[in-house]
Structures are given as C-alpha cells and as structure tokens.
Amino acid sequence: MIHLMTRLTKKEVLHVAELSNLKLSESEVKKFLPQLSKIIEYVSQLSEVDTKETKSTSQTMGLTNVYRENSGDSGETLTQEEVFSNTDEYNGFFKVPAILEGRTNK
Amino acid sequence: MNLPLTIKETQEGLKSKKFSAVELVDTYLDKIKKYNDEFKIFLTITEEVAYKKAKEIDNSDLTLPLFGVVGSYKDIFLTKGIRTTAGSKILENFIPPYSATIIKKLENAGVISIGKLNCDAFAHGSSGENSDFGTTLNPWNKEYTAGGSSSGSGAVLSSNMSLISIGTDTCGSIRLPANYGYLVSLKPTYGVISRYGVIAMASSLDTVGPLAHTVPDVETVFNVIKGKDYLDATVTEKSINNKDSKFKIGIPKEFFVGGLSKEIEKNISEVIKIYKKEHVEFVDVSLPSTKYAISVYYIIQPAEVSSNLSRFDGIRYGGLRDTFGEEAKRRIMLGSYVLSAGFYDAYYEKAMKVRTIIKNEVDEIFTKVDALIAPVAPTPAFKLGEKTNDPLSMYLTDIYAATANLSGIPAIAIPSGFSDKKLPLGFQLMAPRFGEDILFKLGKIFEIATDYKPKVAF
Questions:
Q1: What confidence category does residue B259 fall into, taking pLDDT thresholds of 50, 70 and 90?
Q2: Are B70 and B50 in contact (CB under 8 A)?
Q3: pLDDT tier at A3 (50, 70, 90 boundaries)?
Q4: Which of A16, A69, B22, B434 is the most exposed place for a label (fewest CB within 10 A)?
Q5: Contact check, Cβ <8 Å, A61/B433
C-alpha cells in the first residue's frame, strides 16, 4: 500500500508543472502549493473505502466500440483553408516551434 | 412590448401577429444593450444573425417546433464563423470553422440565435468568477453569484435577454445557475445529447442541457436537441417511462445533513408536502457512499481536464499555454498529479473504483423508487468573492450535483421559492438513466399544483 503524502513539496509541484507543460511563476508555485495540498488531502479520504473486489468505471453507459457506417463523405470534412483559419501556415503546413538546437527560426 | 416568458406565448403572439420576430429581437437587443456591460452576460452578441433569422421566421409558415424562440448559448459551443472563447483568453480570437450539432439542430428547428454567453473559463467553476472576461452578476442581486460554470446561461434568462439558453453540466454547471436564477434546467442522462462541437472538459462526465422558465419548455428544447449523431459515438437513443401516476420519490438522508442551509431544508420539506397532496409517495433512502462523490469527482475530473487541455499547444489554434487562467492551471496540475507514476493507483484508479460503488448504490435505489429529491446546492446564491481564495470551499458547492454526473443519471432543477434575502430557491429531482420523462412528469405535477408562474429579475 502506498503511503499517501498529502502535503506536497515544492519539488513535486514543479515536477507536476513540467508533466503538465506549464511554466509557473514563483508566485504561482507559492499560491498553488498549499491549495493543491489541501485538495489532495481532502480527496485522500477515498483510501478508507474498501475497493478490493470492485472494478473501475470509466463509462457509465457501458458502451464499447460504437461504429458508424463507413461512408466516404461525412459532410463534415474541413477544407485546408478552414483548417488553417486559426493559425499561421507555411506552404500548407502547420508552423511549429523549433525543437532542434542551433536553429532559432521557425 | 412585454416579452413573453414561455415558448407557447411567444409562438401564439407570432401566429396572431401580436408582434413579429423582428420586434422580438428588437426588444431583447434593447435589453441586452442596456444591461450587458454591467452584468457581463454575453461575450458575443450576434445581432446580424438574429435579424436575418427573424426575417426568415416572419416570412415562414410558422410550423417549426421552436419557431421564433430567441436562444443563447454558453460560449463553449462552437459556432461556425462566430468567435467561441470557452470563457478563456487562450481562445480570445478563435473563430470555429464548424458548428456544434446542437446549434444546428436548434437553428433548424427555428431558434433565433442572439449570442454567446459568459462562463467560467473551460467550464471550471461554480460562480462564474473564473471567466477571463469578467464575472457575470446575478440579476436578482448583483452582489451575488449567478452560479457557474454556465453563469451567463442562467443570468440571460433571469434578466430576460433571451427565452431559452443552453449550458453544459459536468458537476452542476447547468443546475446551479438555474437554481440561483429561479429557472428550470435539465442535466440529461450521460450521452443522450450530442457533444460534437462542444469544447470538452471531462469527457466521462460532460453533458449538454437546456435552461428555460418552465418544465414544458425545457422538455420541448430537450426533444429538439437529443438523439443520435454519427459525429458523437457516445450518443444513445433510449427512453424509459413506465407510468403516469403513483410515483414514489426517495429522500436520501445523506443529502439532508450537516452543511445544508435551514432555509433550503425548510423549502424542500414544503415541496415534499405539496407532492404528497398530489399523491406522490415519499420514502427515506440511504446512499452511504455519496459522501465520497466530491472526492471521486475532484480526481476523475482534473485527470480528464489535464488530458483534454493538453491539446492546447498554440499550434493549430489558440494562444500559448501560459495564457491559461489560474483555475485551468490548478486543475491541469491536479490531474497530472493523480495520473502520475506512483500516484495513479492510489488516486485515479481508486476514484474509478469508488465511482463504481456510488453508481451501484444509485442503481440499486432506483429498483425501489422512481426518482430522488435533493437540494441543488448547500446554500442560496453566495456573495461574489466569498470563496475565490479557497478552491476547496468552492468545489464543495457542487456536493449535491456530483452524484448525477458520476452515475450518468438525469437531474432536473426546479424553482420553488425565494429566501429571506429575496434570492431564488429550488430543488432537484434525479431519475434512473434515460428517465427524463419521469422528471418532466414530476416537474409538471409540481408546477400545476403550485400554479407556478415564471419570474424574471427585470
């Protein structure tokens, strides 16, 4: 059984921020640390519930593998112009930030 | 002109030429222009769209089910060519290239779309105070919250700026604004209304539902927007209705202990008396695991939020991730934490198992009763600013809402009076999955027995 650490550390908050792809300011870390600790502490009450024989629920309707008819045109296909209408494009491609070192231009 | 408060009055007025659809739009827009800056109800007003549709309606044969009904939508529903923000700065300039299924269904049924409504950013909140575009004020008393997250969807009706509105309910976000606004609203069974084109919050819990002034109007709108949509694989079409009389309602004892305001408790006991006079039977029941509902919810929901909001990368649409507001960041962090290596089993997996226990308890109860009665919230509308520094106390506002979302059952919020401070009071009824019809029947019994009349703040 895992011992639940309900008091978060600053290191954990920074780790979770990294997992979340969020850059937090120093003041945000300071604000979130006690708030998240308090919430985690509250939800840790679940550890008192016996679930040894219980299966988990992720879909309340019990639906699995719903398919539609395989028709060519759904009538909802977007044009290239529509797809790029909310961003910058370059020659019909999405522009993404550089991920390799030594290149700073997009 | 005096704006009608029901679909029936609106359509009779149009048919008898008492007023035209264009005049209706004129009147709603006058009101919106007068009050919107102060009450922050609409984020986008679609004047041109509304007049175009109104002219079409005036020249039509007035046969569509919702002809002439002026509607507005939480700004979480995509509307082709019309800005959709989800109440967040990250989508401040987002113009969707397609529309949500429910918007198309409403417009095809004759609804005049008048605008997009304020809400807590990404539907995270119970008070509207997490909107990046300012807090919606409650038209009944502007020092108080209009309820969240569909804050604008409630306030728009209690200020009479549209006849119907649509919101989303992941844990009370439709029922709470209705409750704080003297309105009727339905959180439907999970998966009976399409979510195609709805900006996702927590996908195993999110539902779409209507708000209006009466039970019959909520039912009419529900019948238009429900049903299969091949663009949303989670939609199922089914309804259960076994009777027209001899209803039996359960009173879950766990929903009437500690923390519930005396005023609400008293109000609901009066509601029960009214029902009893109408030959509805009441029995005491117990849902012992519902005390864990908020804990289960605040693990599962942030986990799903962290996953859904990971699509905001600033590449295809929207701003960069540092544009997220504080609450979105908090929930993404919580979600990443409960899903992270070392904590997944203790939190996420555990919550999914306790969810099963809650769902089984609820299913078991519905073998004995047709519906459950409960408060919508622990108190009448609270003062703005009261809970903003303590996220946990804000989360606990939804303590009576979580059961319906976690178990996928429908719930209706119905107004039933006013508090000493002249703030709206109400109650909710829950039914088994696909039992919307039971809720509508019980809702109508209450409205008829009390000679209910819709009320607006101004």
A1: confident
A2: yes
A3: very low
A4: A69
A5: yes
What predicted TM-score, i.e. pTM, was given to this entire model?
Answer: 0.96
Residue B335 resides in a domain? no
Cβ–Cβ below 8 Å for B350 and A22 = no
Give the pLDDT confidence of A36-87 residue by residue, as tens digits.
999 999 999 999 999 999 999 988 988 888 887 777 666 678 999 999 999 9
Compute the average pLDDT of residues A9-19. Answer: 95
Among A92-96, B89-93, B169-173, B432-436, the minimum mean pLDDT is found in A92-96
CB < 8 Å to B316, chain A? 83, 86-87, 94
Instruction: Identify the helix (H) or strand (E) that includes residue B166.
Output: strand B164-169
Q: Which amino acid is at B49?
A: V
Mean confidence (pLDDT) of chain B: 97
Q: How many Cβ atoms from other residues are within 10 Å of residue B314's Cβ? A: 15
Radius of gyration for the alpha carbons in chain A, expressed in angstroms and rounded:
23
Q: Which positions in chain B touch A46 (Cβ < 8 Å)?
A: 292, 295-296, 299, 347, 350-351, 354
Question: How far from B26 is each of B162, B308, B371, B457, CA to CA, in Å?
Answer: 12, 39, 42, 20
Cβ within 8 Å of residue B453, ≥6 positions away: none
Do the Cβ atoms of B281 and B246 come closer than 8 Å? yes
Interface of A with B in 31-90 (CB under 8 A): 31-32, 35-36, 38-40, 42-47, 49, 51, 54-61, 63, 66-69, 74, 76, 78, 82-83, 85-87
- Domain with residue B31: its CATH number is 3.90.1300.10
Q: Is residue B207 part of a domain?
A: yes
- Are B95 and B89 in contact by the 8 Å Cβ rule? The answer is no
Residue A2 banded pLDDT, cuts 50, 70, 90: very low
Do residues B441 and B244 make contact, with C-beta atoms less than 8 angstroms apart? yes
Q: Tell me how many domains chain B contains.
A: 1
Q: Is A83 in contact with B97 (Cβ distance < 8 A)?
A: yes
Which class does domain A1-48 fall in? mainly alpha
- pLDDT(B453) > 80: yes
For tokens 């070392």, what's the residue?
B342
Prediction ipTM score: 0.92
Domain residues for the domain of B257 are 7-291+354-449
Beta bridge partners of B144: B383
Within-domain flag for B408:
yes
B364 CB-side CA count, 13 A? 12
Asked whether the beta carbons of B10 and B69 are under 8 A apart, the reply is yes
Residue B319 lies in a domain: no
pLDDT value of position B44? 98
Domain boundaries, chain A: 1-48
Residue A1 pLDDT > 60, yes or no? no
How far apart are alpha carbons B393 and B395 in whole angstroms? 5
